[in-house]
Specification:
Pfam families: VanY. It comes from Nonomuraea guangzhouensis. Keywords: Carboxypeptidase, Coiled coil, Hydrolase, Protease. It is built from 8 helices and 6 strands, in the order H-H-H-H-H-E-E-H-E-H-E-H-E-E. With about 350 residues, it is mainly alpha-helical. It has 2 domains: about 140 residues; about 150 residues, Muramoyl-pentapeptide Carboxypeptidase, domain 2 (2-Layer Sandwich), CATH 3.30.1380.10. Strand 1 and strand 2 form a beta hairpin. Helix 2 runs antiparallel to helix 4. The longest helix has about 80 residues. The two termini are about 15 Å apart.
Length: about 350
Amino acid sequence: MTSLVGLPVATPAHADRRDPAGLTELRKEAEKSAKELEDATKALEKRRNDIATSEKTLTGKLNALQEAERKLAVIRQPVSQMAELLYEQPVGGDGVAQFLSGDADAGTLRAMADTAHIVANRQQVVEQTSTLYKETERLAAEAQELRASNLLAEAQIAVEVDTLRQRSDKIVKSLTAALVKLGIKVDKVGRAALGCNPLRAATANSYPNGLIPKAMLCPLQQKGMSLRADATIAFVSLNEAYRKRFGKQMCVTDAYRSLAEQQSVYYRRPGFAAVPGRSNHGLGLAVDLCGGVERFRSVEFVWMENNSKKYGWFHPSWAYSSPFEPWHWEYDPKIDSVL
C-alpha cells in the first residue's frame, strides 16, 4: 500500500495489528527523513568549511606561483645586463687572437672573463628557469584541480540536500493528508499545516509552558482540542484503535491548556490541578478523558492501560493516588513501542 505521494505506509493487515490509522509508519518515515536531511546538511556545512580551508591552500599556491614568476624575472635580469655589457664591450676575433698570443690587454681579459661568466651564468639560469617553469606548471595544475574538486563536491552535496528536503516535504504532506482524511482540520488549501508537522514538535517544545502559539499546535479529531504535533499523531492512532474496539471515538474533556486556562482550573479545582506553568497540559502532552475511561477499572480504563503505551500514551503513577485522576493520560515519545 502506498500513500498519496507514492511513499510506503502500513498495509491493512499491518494496521489492524499495530496502528489502525496507518500514521505511525509515516511519522517514523518523516523523522527518519528529517534525520537524513540534518546529517546531509551538516555534511554540506562541513564540506563548505573544508572548501574554505582548501581556498586558503589555493591562495597559497597562487601566491607561490606569483613568487616563482617573480624569481624568473629576477634571474633573467642579470643575464640581460651582462648581455648588454657584452654588447658595449664586444670581444672580437682580434681580442681572441691577442689572448691566445699573450698580448691581450686588461680590457680584453676583462671582456673574456665577462663572456665566460655569462656563459656559465646562462647555463645556470637555463637550469633554474626549467625548474621554476615545472614548478609553476605544477602549481597551476594543482590550483585548477583543487578549485574544480571543491565546486563539484559542493554541487553534489547540495543536490543531495535538496533531494532529501523534497522527500521530507512529501512525507509530511502525505502524513497531513492522512490526518485530514481521519477528520483533522488542518488546512483548507491542502498545504501541510505547521502545527501538525511532527518535525516541528521540538520547536513547540521550546516555548514556555502554556504559551505555545496556536499555529504550533495540531488539532485533535475532538473539536476544540489540540496537542503538540507528535502527541496528536500518536493520539489519533490510539483513538482509531479505541474506536475499532468500542465503536466510538475517545471522549476528551481537556487537552492543551494555555497559562490562563491553567490558572482558571487551578483556582476552580484546588488539589486537582498542577501549579500554573508546571502542567503537562501546558506542554501539549496531556489529555483528560471521559466516556468510561474516567472510571477506575472500567473496561475502557483497563483497555487504555493495556494498549495506550503502544502509542506513547500512559497513565502516570501519581494519577493513581496523588491526586487520584483516572481520566488523566500523558504522552511520552520515548515509550512509543509502535515501530
